[in-house]
């Protein structure tokens, strides 16, 4: 596949920093706008649209599956047909349209009795606006997230840059990219959730619309100065080359290891909606008089745990152990992945135990509520588990797959989250039917959400055994 850099405007040395800044700021705002909608969406669907808990959770799982799957489709389209700039522009504009439609649902929505939580039947227009939001933002995310990082890296291209300087610049770019993603997660689960909780859906969703509009504006503002790559296709799919066969074999060989990450995503990424319902039924007061942590903001502790563990591991644990051993110390990817899976078993076990105690306190002590701070062990362990496993898996895929498949390697984690969301939807449906709706109920005090969590404890234990088998079968990994 040939590449032709279309350089327009000033020399790269003058424009790379501002254009990269615009791209990173644009993608951070896109994630801020989207991630800020996720935590409280279960409340919006159940309270404002009158959906059942299981039905609303299924809708959100399918939305998450689509949002994480479409970047793989977008990567193929960008590399084979459109290029990255048009796809990002199309995706971000589509996401903005979807968020505007969601904002309209706060005006055109079913009338609900707040005391009984009984809502009038939804109209065709109301459902059209709601589901159009889910579809448009999922497709839009495929356009933005498939190409944003690669497009930022395109801006570093120059025929006059040394290999060492280019590598250093690329490393710096990746660091700032992931920093901006974490910052967006932090702000979305704190600031945006607080605005939604305090000022209502109309203003809360309006902030997401404003953030997405600013994202689109920033991206297109620098369009005259971007370095753009034109991808020329030579009908490569007409004949399968030996290289393509080897690439397919390499991909198939890593799929068992990839599949082990699905259960971890089920434990740490797919329980957001239920944790919000748990937190809402718990005592969320803090040491600050009159201030309660919004139910949708507890996920921020997982993000903090993720970041702090990475800093502690890189700056304290590794140097300290290396000094003690008098030689460089580094845990291999298989060890880190395995440690992440073992920790995930303890992680989801704490959540099941807390839910059991919460229900017992609610039944035995009436108005007394268990402190929501008991959710922190799950958040802390979940962050550590994700930090160990996610980065190790990305390093494994990038190292074991051919360099020609680097784009695929960087999207496999997203695909795993998509699979986890889809499987979560199936599990919810099966559990709801098998238990006649007795585990997952409208009022979580009347259900058995703890049994649901213990089911995932069992799956996590089986996943540890499965991972050990996969790691031994793979064998050839030396990293």
From TrEMBL:
It comes from the Eukaryota. GO terms for cellular component: membrane. Coiled coil: none annotated. Its main location: membrane. GO terms for molecular function: transmembrane transporter activity. It is a multi-pass membrane protein. The keyword Transmembrane applies. Keywords: Membrane, Transmembrane, Transmembrane helix. It is found in: Membrane. The chain crosses the membrane at residues 32-51, 57-78, 85-108, 128-153, 174-195, 201-227, 248-277, 297-321, 333-354, 374-392, 412-431, 451-469. Gene3D superfamilies: MFS general substrate transporter like domains (1.20.1250.20). The keyword Heme does not apply. InterPro entries: MFS_trans_sf (IPR036259), POT_fam (IPR000109). It holds the Pfam family PTR2. Belongs to the major facilitator superfamily. Proton-dependent oligopeptide transporter (POT/PTR) (TC 2.A.17) family. PANTHER family: OLIGOPEPTIDE TRANSPORTER-RELATED. This is Major facilitator superfamily (MFS) profile domain-containing protein. It comes from Capsella rubella. The lineage of its organism: Eukaryota, Viridiplantae, Streptophyta, Embryophyta, Tracheophyta.
